[in-house]
Amino acid sequence: MAPKQQQPVFSFSANERVLCFHLEMLYEAKVLEVGEDDNGKPKYKIHYKGWKSSWDDWVGEDRIRKFTDENRELATTLAQQSKALHAGKSGNKPPKGKGLGGRGAGSDLSSARGSEERAAGTTTQSGRGPRRARDFELETDS
User: For the segment 66-90, what is each residue's pLDDT rounded down to a tens digit?
Assistant: First the structure.
């Protein structure tokens, strides 16, 4: 006779309001379903508040926190740190207009045919490519 497997102990229940990590950020979420992974450990289907259901995710207990004031403060702190980090990155950009007229080597703008190459992926409703302003003016003046 095979040994009985123990049922996992679930720390969270369906429809419970929680905070859940996605990458380094902690988001408000709701537990939609409770289940087990292949190893018999608890897993939870999470819906992130304010996000489409396509972002719903099965996660382990290590990514979920109870919805408490202390954890909400942690989420706020993480959001502020992330914002500061991203603001610091954008603040380190070199000023435009220096060197090659603002055009870095290897950028789309450094090409002699830059405008044609950048516009190559865009099309109009007719499917014939972008319309130049002077072409439009010629058509309307006639």
Answer: 999 999 999 999 999 989 988 877 6
